[in-house]
Write a structure and sequence with these properties.
single chain; about 475 residues; alpha+beta; Outer membrane efflux proteins (OEP); four-stranded antiparallel β-sheet; 10 helices; 4 strands; about 10% strand; elongated
C-alpha cells in the first residue's frame, strides 16, 4: 500500500472512530414551584409562545406599528447580525475537522565553498519544488476539536435564541409605548374637555359676579379650577410629545400619524385569558431561558476539550508533487516527489497548566448552571407578578367604572343644588374635582389592564413568531 493511500485510510479512520470526552449533559432541575400562583384553571387553549403576534394583538394600527419596528429597529438588526457572526465563527471552528490543503511552489538556492564540495570548487545548488498537501493536521482521536466545534455550535444556536428574545422584548416594548401614548392622548383629551367645561362655568360665574349674584370667593375658586385644568393640558401635551418621540425611537423610524392611537383600546388582545401551563414546561421554552441553556451546553462541551488536552495529540504533515534541480525539468518524467511527516506529542510536564484549564472549564460550567437557574427563577417571578396583577385588574376596573358613574351622578346633583340655591359653590367645586380625579383613575386602570395583557404575553414567551 502506498504512503498516500495509507495516509488517506488513517484520516478516514480517525474521523470515523473519534470520540469526545464531553460530560453527559443533564438539564438542571428548574428551581421553582410546580405551579404558578394566581394562575387560572388549566386550559387547552393555544399557549402564548405558539401564538403569532399578528394573531394576538387585535388593533390593526398596533399591528402595523409592530411590523414597522421589526423592519427598522436597530437592536433587532444587531441581534440578527450577531447570528451571522456566530454562524461564521462556527464554520471557522468546524473547518479544523478537515485538513487545510494548499499548493506551494518554491526555489532553494545554496552556495557551498570549495572546502565543502567533492570537487574542491565552489558550487551553487538549486532545487525547484511544486507541491500540494497540508500541514499539521490533527487527528482528533480524543475529541478535542469536536468538543470545540460543539461549543461553537451551541454559541451559534444561542445567538438564534438571543434574536428571538430580542424580538419578544421589542414587540412588548412597542406595544407598551404605543399604549402609553394612547394613555397620554386620552388624558390630554380629558384635560381639554375639562378645561373647556370649566371655562364655560367660569364665564358664567364671572357674569354672575359682575351682576352681584355671587361672591368673589366663588369667582376665585372657579378661577382656581380653570387654571388647574389649563396646567394639566400643558403637562399632558408634553407627555404625549415625549412618548411620541419614544415610540419613534423604539420603532426605528418615524411613525405615520394614521398609526398613532387616540385613546386606549379595551381590546388590545384577541385572547381573553392566556393559559399559563406548568412552569417547568412553559419557562424552558422561553428564548432567554433557551439562550442560557445553550451557554451551559457550550461550557459543558469546553470541558471535553480541556480533558482531551491531557492525552497525546497526533498531527500529520504531507505533500506530493514534483522536484527538480532545474526549472525546466520540474514537470519532466521521474521528477515526482512526496513527503509524509507524522508527529505525536505527549504531555509530560505542563506545570499544572492543563489541570488549571480543566478547572476553569468546570467552574465556568458551574457558573452557567447558576445563571441558568437564576434565569428560570427570574422568569418565574415575572410570570407570577403578571398573574398577581391580572387577578385583581377585573375588580379594579369594575370599581373604577362604578366610581365614575357615582361621581357623575353626584356632580349632576351638586350642579342642580347650586343652581337652585340650595348649596354653595364649594360643594359643586368638590364634585367637579372628584369627577375629574375619578375619570383620570379610570384611564390609569384601563392602561394597567391593557399593559398587563402585553406583559403576560411577553413573559409567557409570546411574540417571537
Amino acid at each position: 500500500m502506498s504512503p498516500l493511500r495509507t495516509l488517506t485510510v488513517a484520516i478516514a479512520a480517525s474521523l470515523a472512530s473519534a470520540c469526545t470526552m464531553m460530560p453527559d449533559y443533564q438539564r438542571p432541575v428548574a428551581p421553582v414551584p410546580a405551579n404558578f400562583p394566581n394562575a387560572p384553571q388549566a386550559s387547552t387553549a393555544t399557549p402564548a409562545d405558539a401564538i403569532v403576534w399578528r394573531d394576538y394583538f387585535a388593533h390593526a394600527q398596533l399591528r402595523d406599528v409592530i411590523a414597522l419596528a421589526l423592519a427598522n429597529n436597530r437592536d433587532l438588526r444587531v441581534a440578527a447580525l450577531n447570528i451571522e457572526k456566530a454562524r461564521a465563527q462556527h464554520r471557522i471552528q468546524r473547518a479544523d475537522l478537515f485538513p487545510a490543503i494548499g499548493a506551494t511552489g518554491s526555489q532553494t538556492a545554496q552556495r557551498l565553498p570549495g572546502a565543502l564540495t567533492s570537487s574542491g570548487e565552489a558550487e551553487i545548488n538549486r532545487q525547484y519544488n511544486a507541491m500540494i498537501g497540508f500541514s499539521a493536521y490533527e487527528l482528533d482521536f480524543f475529541g478535542r476539536i469536536r468538543s470545540l466545534n460543539a461549543a461553537a455550535l451551541e454559541q451559534y444556536l444561542g445567538t438564534e435564541e438571543a434574536r428571538r428574545s430580542a424580538q419578544i422584548s421589542l414587540v412588548a416594548e412597542v406595544a407598551g409605548t404605543w399604549l402609553t401614548l394612547a394613555f397620554d392622548n386620552e388624558r390630554l383629551a380629558l384635560a381639554r374637555s375639562t378645561y373647556e367645561t370649566r371655562q364655560k362655568s367660569h364665564d358664567l360665574i364671572r357674569r354672575s359676579f359682575e351682576a352681584g349674584a355671587v361672591s368673589a370667593l366663588d369667582l376665585n375658586q372657579s378661577q382656581q379650577l380653570l387654571q388647574s385644568a389649563r396646567a394639566d393640558v400643558a403637562r399632558y401635551t408634553s407627555f404625549a410629545a415625549q412618548n411620541g418621540n419614544a415610540l419613534s425611537l423604539v420603532v426605528g423610524a418615524p411613525v405615520p400619524a394614521d398609526l398613532l392611537p387616540a385613546t386606549i383600546t379595551d381590546t388590545v388582545s384577541t385572547v381573553a385569558e392566556l393559559p399559563t401551563g406548568v412552569p417547568s414546561d412553559v419557562l424552558t421554552r422561553r428564548p432567554d431561558i433557551l439562550q442560557a441553556e445553550r451557554a451551559l451546553r457550550a461550557a459543558n462541551a469546553s470541558i471535553g476539550a480541556a480533558r482531551a488536552a491531557f492525552f497525546p495529540s497526533i498531527t500529520l504533515t504531507a505533500a506530493a508533487g514534483t522536484a527538480s534541480s532545474t526549472l525546466d525539468g520540474l514537470f519532466s518524467g521521474g521528477s515526482g516527489a512526496w513527503s509524509f511527516i507524522p508527529l505525536i506529542r505527549i504531555p509530560v510536564f505542563e506545570a499544572g497548566r492543563l489541570q488549571a484549564s480543566l478547572d476553569v472549564a468546570e467552574v465556568q460550567r458551574d457558573i452557567n448552571v447558576a445563571q441558568y437557574e437564576k434565569a428560570i427563577q427570574s422568569a418565574f417571578r415575572e410570570v407570577a407578578d403578571a398573574l398577581a396583577d391580572r387577578a385583581s385588574l377585573a375588580e379594579r376596573l369594575d370599581a373604577r367604572y362604578q366610581q365614575v358613574e357615582a361621581t357623575q351622578a353626584a356632580f349632576r346633583l351638586s350642579d342642580a343644588r347650586y343652581k337652585g340655591g340650595a348649596d354653595s359653590f364649594l360643594g359643586l367645586l368638590d364634585a367637579q374635582r372628584s369627577l375629574y380625579l375619578a375619570e383620570q383613575e379610570l384611564i390609569i386602570v384601563r392602561l394597567a389592564d391593557a399593559a398587563n395583557r402585553v406583559t403576560l404575553y411577553k413573559v409567557l414567551g409570546g411574540g417571537w413568531r
